[in-house]
Amino acid sequence: SDGFTDTKKRKFPENFLFGAATSAYQVEGGWDADDKGKSIWDTFLHDHPEKIVDGRNGDVGPDSYHNWRRDVEMLRELGVDFYRFSISWPRVLPTGFENKINEKGFKYYDDLIDELLKYSIQPMVTLYHFDLPQELQDLGGWTNPLSVTWFEEYARIVFKRYADKVKYWITINQPNTICIDGYGSEAMAPGINAMDSGAYECVKNVLLAHAKAYDLYQKEFKKKFEGNVGISIAVNWYDPINNSTENAEAVEKARAFQLGLYLDPIYSKDGDFPVLVRQIVDKKSKEQGYSASRLPKLSPQEIKLLKGSVDFLGMNHYTTFLVKPSQQEYQSPSFEDDVGVEYSQGEQWKPAKSVWLKSAPYGLYKACIYLNLNYDYPNIIITEHGWSSGPGLRDNSRVDNMRGYFGALLLAMEDATQVKGYTAWSLMDNVEWTAGTSERFGLYEVDFESENKTRKARLSALVYKNIIETREVDLEWKPKNLKIHIS
Ligand code: PNW
Predict the structure, then answer these.
(1) What is the full DSSP assignment across 69-133?
(2) ipTM score of complex
(3) Is the CB of 359 under 6 A from ligand 1?
(4) Scanning 117, 141, 421, 450, which has its CA 20 to 30 A from the CA of 240?
(5) Atom of ligand 1 nearest to the CA of 433
């Protein structure tokens, strides 16, 4: 049987961890409250309001800066084991530098963490989720090799403050979004297209920043506090559109540029960037008239530092892409031109509100098996998985998607994938970057027009609660009404 239609009951183990996630810029609001510094997302969306689909930026958003008590109440209603949220670097270090600590900003996280612990909900803290302090961007941001040290010093301050209370740490969220979308296109902040040299330089610096923070935790905190440190990487699945040979080559390139570029330095036997990426970018750089490759080198010491620099892989998985060789000429240099493939998605796959998001649960299963075979059964926590819809509480499409992917996940675990936990993206509707609030990812709906940014449980919140309680996915289960309470 294929596992997707068979009737065998599969259960999540008792020690499996369930959680929900948000990120600072997307939910906090309070963009200039209590001496917070500006982040690149404040600048980006203030300078380019036309880039936001519905005009709603993160200045206020769900206003978790003031509504955090309600947020913890929602987590208690769901019955989750942990809450994944991120710390806004410019809120706690307004200039980005270690010498100016903003106690008022830190107080917000002190309160949130204490409230979580009061109810036995583990905080899982992301140190960086896209919101770089603007002052550091003015110095080149992640394209400046000094960014490695800036991040390390920031990490040390946060580790020191919370190591006794926080046992799950994620250094960096989605290097591909930070670097390829942020420094290789105008899609994400800082919106600088620097494919000439900035984007891959960013990949190197972000990975090294992660590895330095990991190393720091190992040396200064691990013995005493016994926490776990990982990195969250976008691990969507890439399949050939059909079995022809040219598609096999195309998919190999897609996997190398989208997955291997970030996973190989940490998990492969020899470390370093994938050979295929090295060959392609070196060759193209020469043809394009650069004297050095646009892909920077990693020194033997850097390779060593990166290898094995995680306690777990944070896997962000949303969807699957079908790959074939590109039929068009891309601008050169560009990331698209380097990879040289085109993406599509199954016509029969259910579409979400976001154009890039379609439901294909089998892809999660395949991605897990791929990680097992290529990287030797890594320890995984799914740190994001979710679905976008329009407003409304009866989110049947989110429920269907969630149940489908849980089926695939249980099957992958039956086949020895080492998944220790799952995180729903997102606890509540939030500011979906340039999509504003036009794409809703929340288990809870947020009324952005209301003064208190009222949150209401969607159907999916009740279904998730039931799955957490019973440890199994009952396709027939329905709540009597949409009321949710703390059990
Ligand atoms: C993630 N894709 O981004 C981010 O970590 C979140 O901040 C964001 O709100 C969430 O997913 C929803 O978009 C992604 O194209 C962006 O497959 C794009 C993709 C996946 C994740």
Answers:
(1) HHHHHHHHHHT-SEEEEE--HHHHSTTSSTT---HHHHHHHHHHHHHHHHTTPEEEEEEESS--B
(2) 0.94
(3) no
(4) 421
(5) 9
